[in-house]
Amino acid sequence: MTVSEITSSGSNKYSQILENVEPKALELVSNSTKESILKQLREFLEEIVETE
């Protein structure tokens, strides 16, 4: 997907490529995968961040 975007847009600027690729890439990730990753991030942050 990224190579295709670079080829079609003719740009090699990271920010411009990301702007075009990110929405498409996010659509490819299932909701269950997103929820699983968010759960793992929350658990990780709870371990390393003090909440007193």
TrEMBL record:
GO terms for biological process: chromatin organization; mRNA export from nucleus; protein transport. Pfam families: EnY2. One of its GO terms (molecular function) is transcription coactivator activity. InterPro entries: TF_ENY2, TF_EnY2_sf. Keywords: Chromatin regulator, Protein transport, Translocation, Transport. The keyword Metal-binding does not apply. GO terms for cellular component: nuclear pore; SAGA complex. This is Uncharacterized protein.
